[in-house]
């Protein structure tokens, strides 16, 4: 099994990964996300929280069968398997696999779900570290064809499903507002353009202007229509709103915006 050791190189500490057969030095640049932390650190934090939640749920078997409201028909166990499969899918893409082939992996009968998920998450983090952010690979959109895309995408995938898992257990989750608002920006950059290209949605008749009331930052605008519809609220609520995790409230803004969001900007 590979292990990670840090060796000093110039002014920065860069990872030197040793394996059973070969030694590979990584001089890939570290990309900082809007929170001020490296994307891979944010991914580690989110996946470790998800694994810890599964450990807690395993202490009470009924917790693993708690329904996930945002994913009809799924319980907490199925959510964890989905997320683990999504991590493995990204690993395969980094290694050149056909993205149309989704891995149908799941824990062995005698394997704890938490241990299985933690292993898949670790495999993802190592694969991203090996690749570095600039490695060319397939992605969901044509203008972002490097592994950095998957650093960001897997963070937001995990954060939303971490919220799902907490919600299934009747718990709340505080999402960093800066990270949450980048999740809204990712919908602008990735999800909505992808939905348009696949003809899954019609172009927005009004551009949606999202303003995070708990951040001093520029709004995120989704769509290119001249007419606009305003949406405002705490950044985490905006993220959950667009991903259909929480219901619309008049406090969020224009009624026209509610109708446009309901048409779905995300898969």
Query: How much helix is in the residues?
Result: 40-55%
Instruction: Give helix and strand order, one letter per element, not per position.
Output: EEEHHHHHHEEEHH
Which residues sit in consecutive blocks of at least 5 with pLDDT less than 50? 1-25
Count of DSSP-assigned helices: 8
How would you describe the shape?
Answer: globular
What Rg do the Cα atoms give? 19 Å
Q: State the secondary-structure class.
A: alpha+beta
Our estimate of the beta-strand percent is: 5-15%
Q: Tell me the CATH topology of the largest domain.
A: Four Helix Bundle (Hemerythrin (Met), subunit A)
What is the domain total for the residues?
A: 3
Give an overview in words.
The protein has 267 residues and is α+β, with helices and mostly antiparallel strands. The protein folds into 3 domains: 30 residues, no CATH class; 133 residues, Up-down Bundle (Four Helix Bundle (Hemerythrin (Met), subunit A)), CATH 1.20.120; 72 residues, no CATH class. It contains 8 helices and 6 strands, in the order βββααααααβββαα. The chain has a 3-stranded antiparallel β-sheet, with no helix packed on it. Helix 1 runs parallel beside helix 5. The radius of gyration is 19 Å and the shape is globular. One of its GO terms (cellular component) is plasma membrane. It comes from Nesterenkonia salmonea. GO terms for molecular function: isomerase activity; metal ion binding. InterPro entries: DinB/YfiT-like, Maleyloyr_isom, MDMPI_C-term_domain, MDMPI_metal-binding. This is Maleylpyruvate isomerase family mycothiol-dependent enzyme.
